[in-house]
Design brief:
about 280 residues; mainly alpha; Rossmann fold; four-stranded parallel β-sheet; 13 helices; about 50% helix
Length: about 280
């Protein structure tokens, strides 16, 4: 049986090779779409910082368009860190506040809407702006969601879950940290607690109810090695943590297969007919 430190070691990447593969993916996808470049949101977090760094390596800064789209409750630290990443990568950063349209909607429709609904609306508004800017610039929208978040459902359908291409989608969170250190991204971004910055004091791990290192390892054992939950617990992981991770994964499966279509013929898209990708 593997020890926990051995499991963690197996999730360590050959950083140079990973960067080469991911930058080639960006180059090939943008070229295949005959696009001019990519558009992405720089949130001040580590995931968007790494996605931007990979895109700049792949395409050059002139073809990468970064946007910071704050809400009135966004942390000042998020702006500071987004600007630090932009300076580090020598990227112009466009900043537009989206408070007016978010508040106008909820003030008119449901002033008592909870923070989850408001957070989802923020994510979708930001992505709508990015897709509009991508259309304007003849670009693709670069995704920033990592593998751990996706499997745990910690993303918003048609919000941060939406993109034209995503270089981080097969990276565990610890691998995002690893590659960010390897590429020398600002320490303020790497070291701060991950947060979607949906409200003051919010952190990913508190909201998820599990820390990222544990989530990475448990998901790896469940999905990459095919272990049963009881076998994962036998490795020394708390049963409550394993059950929490399983519950989050099961409840969010619908997010990972969008446009689920009822079968009427013998070639229903996403059921019988898997459309090829480049």
């Amino acid at each position: 049986m593997l020890r926990r430190e051995e499991i963690a070691a197996r999730l360590t990447l050959d950083a140079d090779l990973a960067v080469a593969v991911l930058t080639s993916f960006i180059v090939d996808t943008v070229a295949g779409a005959q696009a001019r470049g990519v558009v992405l949101g720089l949130s001040g977090g580590i995931d968007s910082a790494l996605a931007a760094a990979l895109a700049v390596r792949a395409l050059g800064g002139a073809r990468v368009h970064a946007y910071y789209l704050p809400y009135r409750l966004s942390s000042p630290d998020s702006r500071r860190d987004a600007e630090a990443v932009a300076r580090h990568l020598d990227l112009p950063l466009t900043s537009w506040e989206i408070t007016a349209q978010i508040d106008a909607y909820f003030d008119a429709v449901d002033p008592e809407a909870d923070s989850v609904r408001r957070g989802n609306k923020l994510a979708r508004e930001r992505m709508a702006i990015l897709f509009d800017q991508a259309k304007k610039r003849d670009c693709l929208v670069l995704g920033t969601s990592n593998k751990t978040e996706t499997l745990l459902g910690y993303s918003t359908v048609f919000g941060d879950h939406a993109s034209s291409l995503n270089p981080l989608g097969d990276l565990w969170k610890r691998q995002v940290w690893q590659l960010s250190r390897h590429l020398g991204l600002p320490s303020s971004v790497i070291e701060k607690p991950p947060s979607a910055d949906l409200r003051p004091g919010q952190t990913d791990e508190a909201e998820l109810g599990v820390d990222y290192p544990t989530a990475d390892e448990v998901l790896y054992l469940l999905f990459d090695r095919g272990l049963r939950p009881a076998e994962v617990v036998a490795y020394g992981y708390p049963a409550a943590a394993v059950e929490r991770i399983l519950a989050l994964e099961r409840a969010s499966r619908f997010k990972r297969r969008l446009m689920l279509i009822a079968r009427l013929s013998g070639s229903a898209i996403n059921l019988d007919l898997e459309l090829p990708r480049d």
